[in-house]
Amino acid sequence: MTSAAPKPPRLPAFADVDPGETGDLAALDLDGRAEDLGFADQDAAGVDLEDTVYTGCTFRRVRLAGAALTRAAFTDCRIAELQAPTLEAPDSAWTNTALTGARIGSADLAGASLRATVFDGGKLDFVNLRHARLRDVELRGLVLGDLDLSGARLERVRFSDCRIDTLTVDQARMTDVDLRGAELRAISGLSGLAGATIDEFQLQDLAPALAAQLGLRVG
């Protein structure tokens, strides 16, 4: 029996954004807002950027080692080649935003809201999306070490050409989540996959874990 295909994410065209005037990330801890500004080759290591708001901004080769981005909001932004050994952005909001070529060691996005957003290419060693809300999101061409989606809500989320070493989905809630484009090496919390779509080869790989969870004996 063939199930209905998952609904794809509803994404904008992501046309290039005019970077406009050059902004200074280090100065935003005072003002807190940036609109239609370009940030390139800047180092905001350790800068307090909590509650900052970015609209229509571009970021290129920005370094954010240890920068505090709690509750920061990004709308209609383009972010390329972001570099951060640690990215502290719990409860942040990402809307109509594209991130390309990011290299992040540990990303704390717990409780974040991601809507109409694309992650395209890059490597992230650990991503904490516990209790986050993802709607109309695509992750493509990514190498992900540990991806923790425990307690997260996902709707119309698609993985394309991704590798995920460990996927944790305890108590996640999924609707129209397409995992067929992900190489899944290990999964924790199999019941959290309810509502996701996988292919027959992924199902074969998951069979031993499913049997163990259900207490099945195969012989």
UniProtKB/TrEMBL annotation:
Tree of life domain: Bacteria
Biased composition (Pro residues): 1-11
Region (Disordered), start-end ranges: 1-20
Pfam families recorded: Pentapeptide (PF00805)
PANTHER family assigned to the protein according to its UniProt record, in alphabetical order: BTB_POZ DOMAIN-CONTAINING PROTEIN KCTD9
Name of this chain's protein: Uncharacterized protein YjbI with pentapeptide repeats
Species annotation: Zhihengliuella flava
Upper lineage: Bacteria, Bacillati, Actinomycetota, Actinomycetes, Micrococcales
